[in-house]
Amino acid sequence: VQLVESGGGLVQAGGSLRLSCAASVSTVDSLSMGWFRQAAGREREFVAASTWHGHSTYYADSVKGRFTISRDIGKNTVNLQMNNLRPEDTAVYYCAAGESGSYDLYDYWGQGTQVTVST
Hints:
Elements: E1 3-6, E2 9-12, E3 17-23, E4 32-38, E5 45-50, E6 57-59, E7 67-72, E8 77-82, E9 91-98, E10 108-109, E11 113-118
Parallel strand pairs: 2-11
Antiparallel strand pairs: 1-3, 3-8, 4-5, 4-9, 5-6, 7-8, 9-10, 9-11
């Protein structure tokens, strides 16, 4: 499974961005899909996840109420809508896919897309 992220960029604090992750398979609905991020000098951290068929979604406390993960089955993509962005959201964002269906186990990773939030 190959994953390609897009939609990153530079935005002012309070603004919005929509990240997309395109999967190379048509069975994305049978995979758990997640978003992670890694800021400079920090470890990668969990952001959001959607389990098999989108049955459940999970969010890090730091993004609850601001970020929304969703699936576009027809386009084999998973999106991350990010609203009310803060400077601390600045990081490289990675898409991940897992065959277990669990929100916390992933087998495939994208190359990442940079998100920079200015003050």
